[in-house]
């Protein structure tokens, strides 16, 4: 018959091992020493191995089997504490999981900072994270696959959706330092960019179908995501707009060059928190929205961003490690 130790037996075993004696364990557990000894004896009978060496020693000493069992007992009782904390949180209304859809326009540093603090604040809450382009954030919220969305591209008002502006970002037209557009040395015109390949992200959600944003070239290469677009532009295969937060280090190092192109609309891009009206966020999701608001509201304006890049370039600041 397989051993079937109880949680109480494991707790008594762990207490004896950690306190160093049966008498100390009895005081810690507020039980009679005879009860502690009886519990350990029953546990050893269940496992069919001795856990303590008792002969010739004033204090009980763990056997090799006891040492091995000690780690198992700690792990099992630790898992129990996690379960108890989760149940307590659920009773208090804390979510079991928060599912978040994040736009690529959200600065990665802000994302990492928020999630690091989230892990510390809500250790019992699981996290599901999806990173989307353009209309993907809205689609994930509408479909219920995401509890909250952090992004922009609120292209159509929907009474079932609650949006709240919590910050901003912006796109900048750029090209590799050795791209023909980077070497013109004057403000660019539409004529300069018309015949150059422009890299454009395709919206997999279909929400922007038939609509192009800042597509100015006759020649376009369409890619599925910002990361691929970034790689191709850096490699000199075309020009295009990229989120400022993504290209900060590239501009500082001179690997990418900002294109002075009036025809490219470079206004601030609002970032919203998005959720379903019928599915209000719980405490953890609400905290996350506020945390993103705090960090995104502190993001620099476009003018301040350019000033910062210029200052770093003049100072010869080395490229941050990737």
TrEMBL record:
<keyword id="KW-0805">Transcription regulation</keyword>
<keyword id="KW-0238">DNA-binding</keyword>
<dbReference type="GO" id="GO:0000976">
    <property type="term" value="F:transcription cis-regulatory region binding"/>
</dbReference>
<protein>
    <recommendedName>
        <fullName>HTH-type transcriptional regulator TtuA</fullName>
    </recommendedName>
</protein>
<dbReference type="GO" id="GO:0003700">
    <property type="term" value="F:DNA-binding transcription factor activity"/>
</dbReference>
<dbReference type="InterPro" id="IPR036390">
    <property type="entry name" value="WH_DNA-bd_sf"/>
</dbReference>
<feature type="domain" description="HTH lysR-type">
    <location>
        <begin position="5"/>
        <end position="63"/>
    </location>
</feature>
<comment type="similarity">
    <text>Belongs to the LysR transcriptional regulatory family.</text>
</comment>
<comment type="function">
    <text>Transcriptional regulator of the ttuABCDE tartrate utilization operon.</text>
</comment>
<dbReference type="InterPro" id="IPR036388">
    <property type="entry name" value="WH-like_DNA-bd_sf"/>
</dbReference>
<dbReference type="Pfam" id="PF00126">
    <property type="entry name" value="HTH_1"/>
</dbReference>
<dbReference type="Pfam" id="PF03466">
    <property type="entry name" value="LysR_substrate"/>
</dbReference>
<dbReference type="InterPro" id="IPR000847">
    <property type="entry name" value="LysR_HTH_N"/>
</dbReference>
<keyword id="KW-0804">Transcription</keyword>
<dbReference type="InterPro" id="IPR005119">
    <property type="entry name" value="LysR_subst-bd"/>
</dbReference>
């Amino acid at each position: 018959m397989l051993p079937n130790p109880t949680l109480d037996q494991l707790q008594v075993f762990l207490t004896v091992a950690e306190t160093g004696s049966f008498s100390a364990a009895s005081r810690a557990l507020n039980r009679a020493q005879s009860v502690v000894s009886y519990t350990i004896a029953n546990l050893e009978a269940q496992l069919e191995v001795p856990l303590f060496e008792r002969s010739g020693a004033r204090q009980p000493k763990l056997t090799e089997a006891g040492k091995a069992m000690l780690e198992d007992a700690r792990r099992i009782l630790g898992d129990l504490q996690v379960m108890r904390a989760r149940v307590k949180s659920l009773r208090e209304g804390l979510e079991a999981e928060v599912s978040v859809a994040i736009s690529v326009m959200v600065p990665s540093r802000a994302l990492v900072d928020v999630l690091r603090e989230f892990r510390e604040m809500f250790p019992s809450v699981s996290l599901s994270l999806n990173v989307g382009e353009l209309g993907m954030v809205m689609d994930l919220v509408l479909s219920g696959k995401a509890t909250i969305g952090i992004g922009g591209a609120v292209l159509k008002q929907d009474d079932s959706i609650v949006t709240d502006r919590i910050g901003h970002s912006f796109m900048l037209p750029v090209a590799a330092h050795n791209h023909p557009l980077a070497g013109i040395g004057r403000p660019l015109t539409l004529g300069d960019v018309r015949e150059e390949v422009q890299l454009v992200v395709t919206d997999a959600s279909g929400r922007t179908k038939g609509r192009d944003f800042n597509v100015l070239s006759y020649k376009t290469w369409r890619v599925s995501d910002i990361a691929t677009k970034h790689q191709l532009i850096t490699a000199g295969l075309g020009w295009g707009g990229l989120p400022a937060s993504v290209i900060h280090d590239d501009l500082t190092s001179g690997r990418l060059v900002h294109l002075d192109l009036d025809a490219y609309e470079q206004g601030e891009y609002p970032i919203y928190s998005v959720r379903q009206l019928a599915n209000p966020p719980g405490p953890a999701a609400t905290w996350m929205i506020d945390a993103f608001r705090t960090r995104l509201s502190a993001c620099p304006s476009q003018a301040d961003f350019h000033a910062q890049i210029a200052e770093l370039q003049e100072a010869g600041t080395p490229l941050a490690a990737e």
